[in-house]
Design goal:
Distance between the termini: 20 Å
Largest sheet: 7 strands, parallel
Low-confidence stretches: none
Strand order of the largest sheet: 3-2-1-4-5-6-7
Oligomer: single chain
Shape: globular
Mean pLDDT: 92
Structural class: alpha/beta
Number of helices: 14
Order of helices and strands: EHEHEHEHEHEHEEHEHEHEHEHHHH
Helix content: 40-55%
Strand content: 15-25%
């Protein structure tokens, strides 16, 4: 097959998912191309895209793609149409709201099989807000023209059904997964903090919740933290840390490769307000890194209940950090068991094969006629 993967930002779990698909599909003899935004992601995105070139025999193109809807989307759709024609694509797979928009419209225009994976995206909204009405109305309309949908977890499919009804097209759940070589124990650095948070510096990742929890903890114990990532709200989080008198115990490290980031703390904390099925959880399990998360998205499909917060607020997080860092908490021993579970359930090879088989079903004559 000749496969075009379309997405907006070359950052985060969505980008990781696409890179894994490109690797797996290429290794199985298929020809892959990528189309994504030309402005986001910085040096790390450029390096990761460069590393992916060996799996993208049909090329990688970067064009300006804005996060919000606008007049630039007409150009984005034209770029998708042009690349699909140039590579003679059999399948166009769109990821996230923008990638899904471009892939579905291009597939409809060209008569090419199209597939959409939301990765959260528009599903983070609801019908009560103006933005939610705009995004979800678009999703409702596009769901009527796409050939198929894949979801990275059951939560995402259930969320889609709650908001938009049962998918009219065929759909599957293909869990994010890791490669076999990624299952290795990660030993904290000599200068590791007590806790580490990694992610985009936006409110959705709950950086403010962690900072306020650390301030509360100072009445019981001084907990140090490394915060890894970059984004539009970095300065406001740094200002909050200063207001909470945390400058001496919290360091903002910018973007780092995942394994390097996970070594920056003895406990990974993820107080996210929204998630889909985050790779960070899988990568922590693979590295035997103890973890605390919020109870959102599909995280409960990978973690036992007691590792998730009963409610998402600073006091609850402070209590859970205190509990997990206490002597005798057995977090390290539990991490060994969780790694073996993840190794059996969350495989990049399985994800690749499931999605490739789904592509193949879409390309059968009876499927295309339907």
């Amino acid at each position: 097959m000749r496969i075009l993967q379309v997405f907006r930002a070359p950052v985060g779990g969505l980008f990781r998912h696409v890179r894994d698909l490109a690797r797996g599909q290429s290794q199985r003899g298929h020809d892959v191309a990528m189309l994504c935004d030309s402005e986001g992601g910085g040096d790390m995105a450029r390096q990761l895209l460069s590393d992916s070139e060996k799996y993208c025999r049909l090329g990688i193109r970067r064009k300006p793609i804005s996060r919000m809807p606008g007049v630039g989307d007409a150009a984005g759709i034209r770029h998708t149409l042009a690349m699909a024609r140039d590579i003679r694509a059999d399948v166009i797979h769109g990821h996230g709201a923008k990638g899904g928009l471009y892939a579905r419209l291009a597939g409809k225009r060209l008569g090419i099989a199209s597939l959409y994976t939301p990765h959260g995206g528009s599903l983070y909204y609801d019908w009560s807000s103006r933005a939610g009405k705009m995004f979800l109305s678009t999703e409702w309309a596009l769901a009527r023209i796409v050939d198929a949908q894949s979801f990275v977890c059951a939560f995402e499919r259930n969320r889609f059904m709650d908001l938009l009804g049962h998918p009219k097209s065929r759909n599957i759940i293909a869990y994010n997964g890791l490669w076999g070589e990624e299952f290795e124990t990660l030993v904290p650095d000599a200068n590791a903090a007590d806790v580490v948070l990694m992610g985009d510096m936006r409110p959705v990742k709950g950086v403010d919740i962690l900072l306020e929890a650390l301030a509360l903890l100072n009445s019981r114990q001084r907990v140090s933290a490394h915060i890894v990532g970059d984004g539009p709200d970095m300065a406001s989080f740094q200002a909050l840390a200063t207001r909470l008198n945390l400058d001496g115990q919290v360091k903002f490290l910018g973007r780092l490769p995942t394994k390097e980031a996970l070594r920056k703390g003895r406990l990974l904390v993820m107080p996210s307000r929204h998630e889909s099925f985050p790779y960070t959880v899988l990568e922590a399990l693979a590295g035997q890194v103890p973890i605390i998360t919020s109870r959102v998205g599909g995280i409960g499909e990978a973690l036992p209940d007691h590792l998730m917060l009963k409610q998402l607020d600073p006091p609850t997080l402070a209590d859970k950090i205190h509990e997990r860092l206490a002597p005798g908490a057995h977090a390290a021993e539990e991490a060994v068991t969780l790694r073996e579970m993840a190794k059996k359930r969350f495989s990049a090879e399985r994800m690749t094969d499931d999605i490739l088989a789904f592509y193949g079903d879409l390309l059968t004559p009876t499927a295309r006629q339907a």
